[in-house]
Amino acid sequence: MAKVAAGARPEKIDETIVSVERAFDIIGMLADSVDGFPLAEIARRLDLNKAIVSKLLNTLESQMLVWRDERAQRYYLTYRISNLGLRHLQTSRLLDQCSAALRQLAEETGELVRLAIVEPGGQRIVWVQSFAGSKRSLRIDPNYTLEIGLHTHATGKAWLSTLPFADALKLLMHQGIEASTAYSKTSISDIREELEEVARRGFALSYEENELGVGAVAAPILASTLGGAPECVGVVSLAAPTNRMSRADLESCGSFVMATTRRLGETWPLEARARSGAFPRMVE
């Protein structure tokens, strides 16, 4: 089957407020910055007039979401945005109940272990927690980028494998299926075949498909939601440098990751299930 054009996305919903979208674009930009940005650079990246960006930054500053270094004239993200996310997670007890199992897997393997959860509504999966094994000197940076590549990350594949392919395809098309490396799959038929294989064996592999020099294995967390049947509520992944773990080595770790996800699925907080409802709830 022919490849789908990268970045193919449905049209945006009309009922949106542009200024809110732009404010969150600024938050996302600053979240990825170590040294912050001056107003002019933010305006350039957003392709907006400086006066508009200045008003947006003043609003975010008044809400204590960003702060301005008066001497350097640069803007930085505050920790308030992180605090809001942590407060939300804390009320569901997700981190408390997952930490022990994730830490154990990281220490036993010596590698980076991450937890991603499916957002209410079933439209997005996001990183929320990570643990790195203490026995290794060479480690992978557990960066929390906003978007998980659904066809390139083992985490994305593990989640999509639990969905009907029609629903998985909608999510893929919304995000786009462009290649991250020369090893990324961009053919719908190839992606479908792999997702079917992931569903059969219970875990997904990604070997230099999302980032050169990095491989990962991931398995879905299946929990009985209040809707009844087990649904995917999150994914646990284990990542390692390819000079330390071959594809076969990572595949052999699949059973350990699956054991962790079974443990988490059995103890997934009821509060989180109540908030989420049945997964996935596709919104047209």
In total, the number of strands is: 7
Instruction: Tell me the number of structural domains.
Output: 2
End-to-end span in angstroms? 26 Å
> Largest beta sheet: what is the strand line-up?
4-3-7-6-5
Structural class: alpha+beta
The level-1 CATH class of the largest domain: Alpha Beta
Gyration radius (Cα, Å) is 20 Å
For the report, how would you describe the main beta sheet?
5 strands, antiparallel
Here the CATH topology of the largest domain equals Beta-Lactamase
CATH homology-level superfamily of the largest domain: GAF domain
Overall average pLDDT: 84
Give the SSE string: HHHEEHHEEHHHEEEHHH
Shape: globular
What is the count of helical runs? 11
Unreliably modeled segments: 1-12, 274-284
Helix content: 40-55%
CATH architecture of the largest domain: 2-Layer Sandwich
How large is the share of residues in beta strands?
15-25%
What features would you highlight for this structure?
single chain; 284 residues; alpha+beta; Arc Repressor Mutant, subunit A; Beta-Lactamase; 2 domains; five-stranded antiparallel beta sheet; two-stranded antiparallel ribbon; 11 helices; 7 strands; 43% helix; disordered C terminus
Describe the structure.
It contains eleven helices and seven strands. By secondary structure, it is an alpha+beta fold. It folds into two domains: about 60 residues, Orthogonal Bundle (Arc Repressor Mutant, subunit A), CATH 1.10.10; about 190 residues, Beta-Lactamase (2-Layer Sandwich). A hairpin with a 6-residue loop joins strand 3 and strand 4. Helix 2 packs across helix 3 and helix 5 runs antiparallel to helix 10. The longest helix is centred in the middle third of the chain and has 16 residues. About 30% of the residues are buried. The N terminus and C terminus are likely disordered.
